[in-house]
Amino acid sequence: MNDRTTPALAPSATSGCSTTTAVRGSLVWFGTDPFLTSSEQALEYVEDGLLVSQNGRITAAGPYTELADGLPTGTTVVHYRDKLILPGFVDPHVHYVQTRIIGAYGDQLLDWLHNHVYPEEVRFADPAYARRFAKLFCDQILRNGTTTALVNCATYPVSVDALFEETTRRGMRVAAGKVLMDRNARPDLLDASPLQGYEESEALIRKWHGVGRSLYAITPRFAVACTDEMLRSAGELWSEHPGTLVQAHLAENTREVREVRALFPDRKDYVDVYEHHGLLGRGAVFAHAVHMDKREWRRLSATGSGIAHCPTSNLFLGSGLFAMREARKPKRPVYTGLGTDVGGGTSLSLMQTMNEAYKVGQLGLLPMDGTKLFYLATLGGASAMGLDGVVGSLAPGNEADFVVLDPSATQLLAVRTAESETVDDLLFALANLGDDRAVAATYVNGRIAHERDPCLDAKPDRAGRRRWTRSLNKELRWFRFEEDAGWSKDLEVPNAWSPYAPGVEAYKSRLYCLHQNTFQDESLWWDVYDKDTGSWRGDRALHDALGAPVPSYGPLSVSHANDHLYYVHHRAYSDSRLWWARYNTEEGEAGWSSDQVVKEADGREVRASGASLTVYDGRLYCVLRREDGRLRWLTHDTRSGEWSAERDVPGGLTSSRTPVVERFKDRLYCVHDRGDGQLYWLTYDSASGRWSGSRRIEGPDGAPVHTSYTPAITRYNDYLYCVFHQEDASGWGRLWWTRYDEEKGWSRPERAGNAISSPGFDISAFHGPLFCVHRG
Ligand code: GUN
Ligand code: ZN
User: How far apart are the C-alpha atoms of 376 and 515, rounded to whole Å?
Assistant: First the structure.
């Protein structure tokens, strides 16, 4: 028996959040291995449960009624009514570098590798291509509820860098490595020598293993593509770096097994090829294991090695039927999880993988119930990777990666699960009918990392308390508009992400974009666009006058006035006070002021659910929405630094979302909505001190403008532009625009470029064009 220790784990406190996360719902996890005890014994279930985590680690999981009182004061409990909260799924075998060739027709393993896989993997020598697919891959696995994966990258170290950059930024517990291969494939994909493969792997171990939650996996691709020397150096690497993992393919296809026999005539069998080089043990995971004899099973069991059963792949490539009965024999069990094996596998969903595993189990005379299937996809996979006790369970002490499943996600699921009388049956229905639609939310390291149908900005509950639903980071993108050139292509703002609408404003010779970044620290960050270079300068944390980061929550508004750039925002979910600061580039006063509470002249603190700023007639105007929906306004004297008293916008006007304001010609314009999904507008005239009544925005044909989110307005050339968000019939979000002309009124709404956008965007005119920054 190999006595290797389980992978060494860096403490995750540095990357965890310092706040408490508490979610309420039905808790489900597995206390033991149901194949070795029984499903009844293994299943842990708390019908009305509370799951609490701190610093990314689970601190309590139990009945809500027992735990709620012990929560730190001010903790927000997110209630997932009628939903199941389970450990995040663990995918112990997947190739992110094959995402794009998923579902390639026709061939079996060896031809499929040469015809489809290898030509795609060579593209990952390009770091930009690798980054694109690393990002896409992470988005996709999170939307499927997968929080830990063991990932094959390509031969090139840059393909590993791209993945770990993405997973560490998101705080994910992911293991990955560069594939080692030095024969039987196109030369541009091969390692030049075993020594080079060894050295590159070792450099990657030093660079990534233990950084955040990253783990390195030494990855000899499979015996067909590795010489004895390559396998030997992989084994040496593993013994020199305890705590790393090993991953390889094993006995997937009969032709492959025959080739291995011919290539390694001195070895007893395929497992012996790996064991001979010290590659078996705890933390070594072998994918497929379809064509195995009894001796091979015994060796895997005796050494504590793990297996990834990849049913969608084995069926898709015609590889064969995995023998779950052999793998899970109580006398000599092998740690087993379910791998998606995309691109050989046809889905990144572990629920779809359970579905196929069940059918393969039926053919092997081992029907598996809901408990066994979900065990394999959570704690089973974690155990195969040697990560039991770390992930794959809701037991306190585990890392806070979990998934919220919706048993009524689709009509069919809803009617099927309405009849479920046991939790096991509920799980079984989800295993067979579930996919990414059934994943209501995914949490990584105690923070929300994916949310189905995110809806944000000023969404009050019945008591009017809640101001925004929590939302998740989306990459920021931008495009621009010129009256003769039209809308430009949609481009990325490099490395900028935000969970809420950014605030965009031209100030002096630059365009500023302020936003939060919950991947980092939930504080304000900013980007600057330089017109001379036509590029965005790196995203960085905004620091106040004392050099400290500024905590921030929810959308914010930015405006320039009298040589300063101002913002108003909220600092925390539970703090409804408005805060403000200003920025100046001038010598002597350069930098941001301290972040302060907006206070009326008599010292009263101003509270709001959302606010918007603009400069008009020499003063900064702030129009806000109180928590009860009323529209209020106040002004700021940029010289004295004083705020006026706060007053009602007349007419008892209310808005269901944050109002937006902008000066246009000689008036202040305010656009708001009244909860009917249509936009309204009104004006203020400082000369008379009067507000107009609020009217519906209507195109020339009298049609109203429908939107589900806060719009953005700005003056540009001779018009007031309004950009707003709509979801089309397929659920994609698109941006639209209309503009106001004092004589002609509002124009007929048209699409603003081709971008697909999440809610949350802002616009500003800047040196010619009109810029729009939005959440992708
Ligand atoms: N065997 C060697 N490489 C691969 C691969 O990329 N996918 C699968 N399914 N099997 C392999
Ligand atoms: Zn594979």
Answer: 40
Mean pLDDT of 580-594: 85
> Any residues with CB less than 8 A from the CB of 12 and at least 6 apart, and which?
55, 56, 57, 171, 173, 212, 213, 399, 445
- Measured in Å, residue 372 CA sits from the centre of ligand 1 at 26
Ligand 1 site residues, Cβ closer than 6 angstroms? 95, 109, 113, 117, 221-222, 249, 252, 313, 341, 344
* Predicted confidence band of residue 588 (pLDDT cuts 50, 70, 90): low
**pLDDT class of 255 with cuts at 50, 70, 90:** very high
Mutate to test the pocket of ligand 1, among 118, 179, 230, 252 (most ligand atoms within 8 A of CB): 252
The DSSP annotation for 506-527 comes to EETTEEEEEEEETTTTSEEEEE
For ligand 1, atom 3, the nearest C-alpha belongs to 221
Find where tokens 């939790």 sit: 423
Atom index in ligand 1 nearest the CA of residue 256 equals 1
The three-class DSSP label of residue 420 is: coil
- Closest protein CA for atom 1 of ligand 1: 249
Q: Say how far apart CA 185 and CA 195 lie, in whole Å.
A: 18
Q: Which helix H or strand E contains 196, and what residues bound it?
A: helix 194-208
pLDDT value of residue 661: 97
Ligand 1 atom at minimal distance to the Cα of residue 95: 6
Pocket test residue of 96, 121, 155, 222 for ligand 1, highest count of atoms within 8 A of CB: 222
d(CA 762, CA 750): 17
Tokens encoding 129: 């291509």
Span 104-120, pLDDT tens digits: 999 999 999 999 999 99
Calculate how far, in angstroms, residue 287's C-alpha sits from the geometric centre of ligand 2.
6
Element (H, E) at 382: helix 381-384
Contact call for residues 392 and 379 (beta carbons, < 8 A):
yes
SS3 of residue 126 by DSSP: coil
Which atom of ligand 1 is least distant from the CA of 179? 3
Per the DSSP assignment, residues forming a β-bridge with 152 are 95, 177
CA distances from 499 to 229, 264, 557, 656 (A): 49, 53, 15, 20
What letter does residue 277 receive in the DSSP assignment? T
Q: What is the largest CA-CA distance in the chain?
A: 97
Indicate if the pLDDT at residue 459 is higher than 60: no
Query: Is the model's pLDDT at 2 over the cut of 50?
Result: no
Ligand 2 mean position, distance from CA 345 (Å)? 8
| Local structure of residue 704 (DSSP, 8 states) | B
Closest approach atom of ligand 1 to CA 319: 9
DSSP tag of 425: H
Query: Residue 238: phi, psi to the nearest 5?
Result: -65, -40
Which of 296, 305, 391, 396 is CA-nearest to residue 91?
A: 391
| Higher pLDDT among residues 587 and 98, named by residue | 98
CA nearest to 89, candidates 323, 315, 322, 427: 427
Amino acid (1-letter code) at residue 113: L
- pLDDT for 14 equals 36
Give the pLDDT confidence of 37-65 residue by residue, as tens digits. Answer: 999 999 999 999 999 999 999 999 999 99
Mean pLDDT of the chain: 91
Burial-class residue 534 by CB neighbours within 10 Å (0-12, 13-18, 19+): exposed
Average pLDDT of the residues in 279-289: 98
Ligand showing the shortest atom-to-Cα distance for residue 256? 1
DSSP 30: E
Cα 355 to chain centroid distance, Å, stands at 25
Mutate to test the pocket of ligand 1, among 91, 94, 95 (most ligand atoms within 8 A of CB): 95
Tell me which of 71-85, 172-186, 235-249, 500-514 is least confident: 71-85
